[in-house]
């Protein structure tokens, strides 16, 4: 599993840093969706492989 970490700046400096936090949240949601999609594909391929082995 690849871990992606985003550096979040200190939020007490100014309100201008909040946009970066928003982009970080969006990227985290996109990354979660992509990894879930890949997990579903891997599960499907595993079931296909098990089905093929069982038929032999």
Description:
- With 56 residues, the protein is mostly helical.
- It has one helix at residues 18-55.
- The longest helix has 38 residues, at 18-55.
- The mean pLDDT is 78.
- Keywords: Membrane, Transmembrane, Transmembrane helix.
- This is (rape) hypothetical protein.
- The chain crosses the membrane at residues 29-51.
Give descriptors for this structure.
about 55 residues, mainly alpha, 1 helix, about 70% helix, rod-shaped, transmembrane helix, transmembrane, (rape) hypothetical protein, membrane
Mean pLDDT: 78
- As a whole number of angstroms, the C-alpha radius of gyration is 19 Å
Our estimate of the beta-strand percent is: under 5%
Largest sheet: none
Q: Tell me the overall shape.
A: rod-shaped
Order of helices and strands: H
Query: What structural class do helix, strand and pairing data support?
Result: mainly alpha
Helix content: 55-70%
- Distance, first to last CA: 32 Å
Oligomer: single chain
Spans of 5+ residues with little confidence (pLDDT < 50)? none
Number of strands: 0
Keywords: Membrane, Transmembrane, Transmembrane helix
Protein name: (rape) hypothetical protein
Please describe the topology of this protein:
Blueprint lengths: L17 H38 L1
Short description:
It contains one helix and no strands. The protein has 56 residues and is an all-alpha fold.
């Amino acid at each position: 599993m690849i871990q992606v970490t985003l550096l979040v700046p200190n939020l007490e400096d100014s309100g201008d840093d909040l946009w970066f936090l928003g982009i970080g949240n969006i990227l985290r949601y996109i990354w979660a969706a992509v990894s879930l999609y890949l997990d579903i594909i891997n599960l499907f391929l595993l079931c296909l492989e098990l089905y093929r082995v069982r038929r032999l």
